[in-house]
Specification:
Layout lengths: L1 H36 L4 H28 L8 H33 L4 H12 L1 H14 L3 H4 L1 E3 L9 E4 L2 E4 L3 H39 L5 H39 L7 H25 L1 H18 L1 E2 L6 E2 L1 H4 L2
Antiparallel strand pairs: 1-3, 2-3, 4-5
Helix pairs in contact: 1-2, 1-9, 2-3, 2-9, 3-5, 3-7, 3-8, 7-8, 8-9
């Protein structure tokens, strides 16, 4: 059992170490870009809020799990349990919805500028922040169960329809509450997974068709023609594929737990690892594929090279051009 606890602590510690700094970096970087350039593109606004949601998922879920695995007991009381679980549920829902919104937004951007697509391009781009706020308000209203059914663990008997979540228990009291709650949110998750999968499939179709149309063009022009679509869509496709794999497994396990009257701690731990892996890994995908983040990094790097490679006294400094060629 001690080996299992050590392995559990290691897994959640890794998720915390890579998830919190990664999402914090994206938040700070886009905030800096917003201050310097006075604006953010709609796609980057979605990515920024997605990083915030993922940050709270890791904060509210992976940290308590890792602390519990190290032997720290009775960390949360009833009020803190309700707050932590409400934060986790809403943040996870926002992560799902924003990933879906990101894929749909990118799908609309690369679609032909005709008819309904033209209207959607203008509307979604103009009101993306309003859409995000509306999604947040809906999710805040959909999770009273995190307040009603969650409480700190006690040495008292609970109903068979209880999810044991480290420091907290989610006791649904009756079979009907247990099934209805689980089914509704499983349907919600699969609906958004399906939506983002359809959008990403259309993105891949458009990119393949575009690549086929420029096959006869010389290589330099072909690369230039592909760069805009590929750089704009690569992150979306990677995020959606990662999400679909991890969260679909999570929801399959959740559906399996609906068939059980008593859910084991190891099953809950496995579900939480899957639920926290996407929020922890997504910053690396965003940073590696987002042109704006890479652009700011390249500018800072070039400025450092210019500063470090000036020669002569303070009145007559000459840059070393050979270093800049690299």
């Amino acid at each position: 059992m001690e080996i299992y606890l050590l392995f559990k602590a290691f897994c959640f510690f890794i998720l915390v170490v890579i998830g919190i700094p990664g999402n914090a970096y994206i938040l700070l970087k886009f905030s800096y870009i917003r201050i310097i350039e006075k604006k953010l593109m709609p796609t980057n606004i979605i990515l920024m809020v997605l990083a915030l949601a993922n940050f709270f998922v890791v904060l509210s879920r992976a940290i308590p799990q890792s602390l519990n695995a190290t032997g720290l007991e009775d960390l949360l009381d009833d009020t803190k349990c309700k707050l932590v679980m409400f934060t986790y549920r809403v943040s996870r829902a926002m992560s799902i919805c924003l990933t879906s919104l990101l894929s749909c937004h990118q799908c609309i951007l690369i679609a032909p500028t005709t008819g309904l697509w033209a209207y959607l391009k203008k509307t979604v781009t103009q009101y993306v922040l309003v859409i995000i706020i509306a999604i947040m308000c809906i999710n805040l209203m959909l999770y009273p169960t995190a307040i009603l059914y969650n409480h700190a663990r006690r040495n008292t008997t609970t109903s068979p329809y209880t999810l044991r979540l480290v420091y907290c228990n989610a006791d649904f009291l009756t079979y009907i509450n247990y099934i209805v709650n689980g089914t509704l949110f499983a349907i919600r998750d699969f609906l958004f997974v399906g939506l983002m999968t359809l959008a990403s499939t259309y993105i891949v179709y458009v990119l393949l068709r575009h690549e086929k149309s420029i096959k006869g063009i010389r290589n330099s022009d072909r690369d230039q023609g592909k760069s805009v679509e590929y750089k704009a869509s690569r992150a979306v496709i990677l995020l959606v594929v990662t999400y679909a794999l991890l969260f679909s497994l999570d929801n399959c396990m959740w559906i399996y737990t609906l068939t059980l009257s008593n859910v084991g701690a190891s099953i809950n731990d496995a579900r939480i690892v899957l639920a926290c892996t996407y929020p922890a890994l997504s910053p690396f995908i965003i940073i590696a594929t987002n042109p704006k983040l890479q652009q700011r990094a390249n500018i800072l790097h070039r400025r450092r090279l210019l500063t470090w490679n000036y020669q002569g006294d303070s009145g007559n400094r000459i840059p070393v051009i050979s270093v800049m060629r690299n």
